[in-house]
Amino acid sequence: MTSTEEGMAQPQGNSFWVDLLGTEVRYRQASSYRTRSIEAGAGEPVVLLHGVSGHAETWVRNVAVLGRDFRVHAIDMLGHGFTDKPQIEYSIRALAEHVLGFLDEIGASRAHLVGQSLGGWVAAFLAVHHPERVASLVSVTGAGLQLDADGATLTENVGRQVAEATTKALDTPTREKVRTRLEWLVHDPSVVTDELVETRYRIYASPDFAATAGDMVAAFTSRARPEELLTAERLATINCPTLVLWTRQNPTMPWPVGEAASRIIPDATFRLMEDAGHWPQFEKPAEFHAVVGGFVRSVTAGRQGGRTDGDGGPTDPATNRQRAAR
């Protein structure tokens, strides 16, 4: 049994302290911004990027387990969590440049990027515009997709839904509003713990976040920049190993859009998870570790044809797409 399999066999603790045993919280200067990260492990760098209005605790159930094979950094992106929140015009490019600054700070010429929702958008943007810095890309229910002209309306509708759900929680935040926002992210609301609610409530209620959150959320939803959207033409230029991971119960962009994106990205693999919402890494961490950990291990081992070492990760694009269609 490998160390990763042993980690998968352990029950998930109800407390962040249990899930994060063996990790460390650090503050680094990334592009002149004080940046919080939760880190663990050794080896090739893996950077985990959260969704809009999120924070590093998005990955609380993943850092320690993935850290058994890699050097993992779950960061608060610019304007989020406990990272600096400058009064700037927020954009995907601004967040991407902050991630590049973080890579420079940790001395990583390139890294494996695992992005969820907004984080998937930022990671894919980097794969398009800075391919030399991206060792591999994992997009988990990623945002920013606009694959054709018909998709513009869908993109607008999804952006509106995300903006409404988030703004309700941000407008004079209460623990009840925050819980509603978090439960919207998942298929099984019982996985949302009081500790997770309290963590996000404290962030939402902080004056520095409140000062920028409204404009920042709008920048990635209702006011998304056309030049930053992930169009088919831009996705077709991605040349790093890529895994597109979706869920059948995702409350934002439906899974066929993710599957279509995986067909456009050269040699990408698609995986569909069942019984999970927008946060599969939190709802079904064991399956998530098998799929994502297996994919990144296959890349680090030089096997870029879609096969892994047999731990439950993706096998090949065609097999996974057949599974998704069932």
Automatic annotation (TrEMBL):
Residues 45-285 form the AB hydrolase-1 domain. Residues 301-326 are annotated as: Disordered. Transmembrane segments: none annotated. Residues 303-313 have a biased composition (Gly residues). Keywords: Hydrolase. InterPro entries: AB_hydrolase_1, AB_hydrolase_fold, Epox_hydrolase-like. The keyword Metal-binding does not apply. One of its GO terms (molecular function) is hydrolase activity. PANTHER family: ALPHA/BETA-HYDROLASES SUPERFAMILY PROTEIN (PTHR46438), LIPASE-RELATED (PTHR46438:SF11). This is Hydrolase. It comes from Rhodococcus sp. YK2. The gene is orf4.
